[in-house]
Amino acid sequence: MDVFVTGFGVISALGCGVDENFNELKENQTGISKAIFFESSFVDVFPFGEVKKSTEELHQILDLTLNSSLTRTDLFALIATQEAIKMANLSREEVSSFETALITSSTVGGMVETDFLYEDSNLLSTGSPFLFSYGSGAHTQKLIEHFKFQGYTDTINTACSSSANAIMMGVKLIRSGKVKRAIVGGTDSLSKFTINGFNSLQILSKKNCSPFSSERDGLNLGEGAGYLVLESSEVVKDKKLYAKIIGYGNSNDAFHPTALSDDAKGVIDAMKKALISAKIKEDDIDFINMHGTATENNDRTEIIGIKEIFKKIPLFNSTKSYTGHTLAAAGSIEAIYSILSIQNNLLFKSLNSHNPIVYNPLFDSNIKNIDVKIIMSNSFGFGGNCSSLIISKI
Amino acid sequence: MYIKALSCISPQHTFDGDFFKFEPIDYFSKQVEAIEPNYNELIPKGLLRRMGKGVRMGIGTGITLLKEYPNVEGIIIGTANGGLEDCVKFLNQIVEYKEGTLTPTNFVQSTPNAVAANLALMTNNICYNSTHVNTGLAFESALMDAFLTLEEQAGPLLVGSLEEISSYNINIDTLKGWVKSDDETLSLLTKSNTKGSVPGEGACMFIIDKSKENAQSFIRDFSQITTKDENVLFDFFDRFLKNNNLSLEEVDGFMLGLNGDSNCNYFYDLFINRYIQKETILTFKNCVGEYPTSMSFAVWLSTELINGNNIKLVEYQAPKAKYQRILIYNHYFGLQHSFMIIEKPI
């Protein structure tokens, strides 16, 4: 059974909504800069892919009065989901149908409210407004309440590959006939928890990240959300169809908690499984949206994996040079960027890739008027969680 | 789906097999903690030293099954909170050291995917690997993933859950009104009528497969819904029964998640009044307390009962000799509801 993308929504450092994101990508404008809203002593040390909206402005976008129990993680998820539902033209009945699943993901969830969490968890308060907002699955409840979902729900956390696995789970549910429709994606916001964690691992760059550059020295953290509406061929009728999800692969590198293996075994296995699942050959892939975090380890290993799978390396980029690494949201945001490439026959330049370890024309400029039929999108995470998606033109 | 093998660490003697020899251990406490085995033969010392309790319990139960089934084709874990204690330790460091130079150990151990990741790493298995964190339905989500994975590829799969008590969730759940203010006798928990419950913890792992060869139980169906409305809930349950072409008389035991919380007891009370005879009630939180993935303990216990093991679970009920079919109904504080039918494999 074919699984179609009928709508999508995104919020990231590049802007709020699909149009703003597309314009910045097209103009090669990065969203990575000094953070304005995020409060941390690291703001003066590292650049971030911050969403350039205050919490108040995020509420306004949703026409909500300031509700102090919604975290930035929740608000990003609500905004991107709202856009996706609108684009797919889903009725209230369709959203609340038992045939509609919600598969979402987050790594930091409500722990973004680090200081409130510290007080609540150490009984230094009588209970902050965020008591019900902290867990990984808390944003899922906010989505359910806001949109009145009644069908199957799930929250995934496989670190930085989370929303790629949420997309997989949605496709699997539809293919099995369990549901007709799934809203899938991920959300994460900048938090002291994550930044201190990544800093302790010494993988943050003080410059704007430079994926696949021989001078790369780490990643930039970003924030945002990306959600897609997936629908089965049974229910799409005469709807506008944007893309098909035709394959997926998931593997574990089984090597190290926070690094990929030198032989890239998980990376290779995830891509192989995705190709088999899509029933295509490696030379059918026109373009790869790489995980490309710009850490020494990730980019080296990903290239080793690509060289193993592809006799001729396809065009590739890393849009993390625009958004930073949005963690759980990365897989779905990048799936959306891949669909924008398919829709507009346009591949986006990868920024800051000086002296690349493997040359690719997308390090120099956008490529216009290119018929992109099939895209691979990779997402890898701590704990060895490797996933690869294959997205095709209708 | 069939359950081929199972392993459980809980506040009872479930890991060493003594649980069914006696009555459940009783506790008089505000929380009940898991009895951990000696992990030395299961987990290398270097790794064990860095693991928090939740991760240890998950690895201990998981690795026990992976020794018997080394070639699983999927490792799928459900946990609401993962390594919470490490999470708080890291959080406290951030605040107390004002974001100074921190060590990554607590951060790495606190990520919920640490158990699935460690199991893959320790057994050098690059198979399908996923972690579900859907609060009170995290284990059910892992089971759904297993069901869908088995539609696409061969089994068997390792599927399970873990949850640990930490100061973090006890304090936050206390502020939410989910923890009883006084010590409670665990064996009487299901009859308690004060606010909140008694937090518990544990890990259960299962080998799940398509083939029924040597199966211990059969998971006929399971379904979940998030709602605060009992009418929506009962419509949903009626449809669940109808989809399974099942009448209530065909069920030998109803395993209910009664947790003694006066705020949310009414869902169970309404369910009992509407559907079942009191003699068929089975309970499990009087053994392990309340936690988001306690459903996995209900599945473990139901499988053991179907297998012929027996224990006195409800004081007014003599243990039934043989269970052919058990229906589980659990909810997590009145919002996330879950139904499951477990049968003797035939």
Number of helices of chain A: 13
* Arithmetic mean of pLDDT of chain A: 96
Return residue spans of chain A where pLDDT drops below 50 for at least 5 consecutive residues. Answer: none
Q: What is CATH's topology name of the largest domain in chain B?
A: Peroxisomal Thiolase, Chain A, domain 1
Structural class of chain A: alpha/beta
Number of domains of chain A: 2
CATH superfamily of the largest domain in chain A: Thiolase/Chalcone synthase
Principal-axis shape of chain B equals globular
Structural class of the secondary structure composition of chain B? alpha/beta
Task: Set down the secondary structure blueprint.
The complex is a heterodimer of chains A (394) and B (346).
Chain A (H helix, E strand, L loop, with lengths): L2 E10 L2 E2 L1 H9 L28 H7 L10 H16 L4 H4 L4 E6 L8 H8 L16 H10 L5 E4 L5 H15 L4 E8 L3 H9 L23 E9 H4 L6 E10 L12 H14 L8 E3 L6 H14 L5 E3 L2 H4 L6 H15 L29 E7 L4 E8 L2
Parallel strand pairs in A: 3-4, 3-5, 8-9, 8-10
Antiparallel strand pairs in A: 1-2, 1-6, 1-7, 5-6, 7-11, 10-11
Chain B lengths: L1 E8 L18 E2 L15 H6 L2 H16 L5 E5 L5 H13 L8 H6 L3 H9 L5 E5 L5 H15 L4 E7 L3 H10 L7 E2 L16 E8 L7 E10 L3 H14 L9 E4 L8 H11 L5 E3 L1 H4 L6 H12 L18 E8 L3 E8 L3
